[in-house]
Write a structure and sequence with these properties.
single chain; about 300 residues; mainly alpha; MetI-like fold; 14 helices; globular
Length: about 300
C-alpha cells in the first residue's frame, strides 16, 4: 500500500473539519462574487439618484440606497473586489518577505540571525496603526512633487496600491518569526545533514528540503493574514485615510454611514456584516488548516 504524503493526509483531515470546509465554501462564493461583480450587480455602483436619498430596501434596490442614492447592493458587491484584492495582495507580499527573512535567519544563524532578529524587533516596536495613518494621509494630501508624480503614475489605483504596500511593510514580522523558529528545528534533522554531506549548497537545502516542510505553517499564516488585512483596510478606510471614494469598499461605506447609523441602520449593516463574515471565514479556515496539518492535533 503506497504511503500518503503530508499534503494528502492534511487534505483528508481538513475535509473532516466541518467549520473549515463551510468557511472555504463561503470564501469561494465571495471570490466568485468579486470576479463576476459586473454581471451580478443590478446597478452601476456609482450611479447617483438624489431622489433616493437614504431610501430603505425596496423591490428595485434590495438593500436600499446611500446618501447619494447609490444602490447599496451593487456597492457591497463591488466592495468585495477591493477588500479581497487588498487581503490577498498583502498576504502574498507579507508571506514572501517574511518567509525569505525567516528562512535566512534560521538557517544561517549567528550574525545573520542576530541582524534579522533585531530588525524584526525594531519593526515590531513601531505603532503600526499610527504609522499607517500617517503614511496614507501624507500620500493622499501631500503636494510634494515626488508624491504628486507617484500619484499620477499610479493613476486611479493609487490608493489601493499604497494601502497594500503600507500593510505589507508592517505585516511580515509574525511570519518571519514563525518561519525562523521552525527552520531552527528543521535544519538539524537527519535529512538536512544528509543533503549537506552530499554536497548540496545552502540555497538548494533551503529551497528543496526546508521550504517544502514550511508549507503548512505558511499557508495557515497566509489565511490569517488575509483576514487581518481586510479588517485593517476597513478600519483605515473607516477613519478616512484608506481607499477613497468613489471606489467602493466596505470600510468607506461604513465611514459614510458613521453619522447616520441610528437613523438609517441598513447603511452600515450590510458592509459591516460582509466584513464580519469574510474575516471569520478566513480565520476559521486558518484554524482548520492548522489542525489538519499538525500531526499532534485531534479533530
Amino acid at each position: 500500500m503506497r504511503s500518503r504524503s503530508v499534503l494528502q493526509l492534511g487534505i483528508q483531515r481538513l475535509r473532516r473539519h466541518k467549520l473549515a470546509m463551510f468557511s472555504l465554501g463561503v470564501i469561494v462564493l465571495l471570490l466568485l462574487m468579486a470576479i463576476f461583480a459586473p454581471f451580478i450587480a443590478p446597478h452601476d455602483p456609482n450611479a447617483q439618484d438624489l431622489s433616493g436619498f437614504y431610501a430603505p430596501p425596496s423591490r428595485q434596490f434590495w438593500l436600499g440606497q446611500d446618501e447619494l442614492g447609490r444602490d447599496l447592493l451593487s456597492r457591497v458587491i463591488y466592495g468585495s473586489r477591493v477588500s479581497l484584492l487588498v487581503g490577498f495582495s498583502v498576504a502574498f507580499l507579507s508571506i514572501l518577505f517574511g518567509t525569505t527573512l525567516g528562512l535566512m535567519a534560521g538557517f544561517f544563524g549567528r550574525g545573520t540571525d542576530i541582524a534579522i532578529s533585531r530588525f524584526i524587533e525594531l519593526m515590531l516596536s513601531f505603532p503600526t496603526l499610527a504609522l499607517q495613518l500617517v503614511i496614507s494621509g501624507l500620500f493622499a494630501s501631500s503636494d510634494a512633487a515626488p508624491v504628486v508624480a507617484l500619484r499620477n503614475a499610479l493613476g486611479a489605483n493609487a490608493n489601493i496600491l499604497i494601502v497594500v504596500l503600507v500593510f505589507s511593510l508592517f505585516g511580515w514580522m509574525g511570519t518571519a518569526r514563525l518561519v525562523r523558529g521552525e527552520v531552527l528545528k528543521l535544519k538539524n534533522l537527519e535529512y538536512t545533514d544528509a543533503a549537506r554531506a552530499l554536497g548540496a549548497s545552502s540555497v538548494r537545502i533551503m529551497l528543496r528540503h526546508l521550504l517544502p516542510n514550511l508549507f503548512a505553517i505558511v499557508i495557515v499564516q497566509a489565511t490569517l493574514d488575509v483576514g487581518t488585512a481586510i479588517l485593517s483596510e476597513a478600519a483605515l478606510s473607516f477613519l478616512g485615510f484608506g481607499i477613497q471614494p468613489p471606489v467602493s469598499t466596505w470600510g468607506n461605506m461604513l465611514s459614510n454611514a458613521n453619522t447616520v447609523v441610528l437613523q438609517y441602520p441598513w447603511i452600515a449593516l450590510y458592509p459591516g456584516l460582509m466584513i464580519l463574515i469574510t474575516v471569520l471565514s478566513f480565520n476559521f479556515l486558518g484554524d482548520g488548516l492548522r489542525d489538519a496539518f499538525d500531526p499532534r492535533s485531534r479533530l
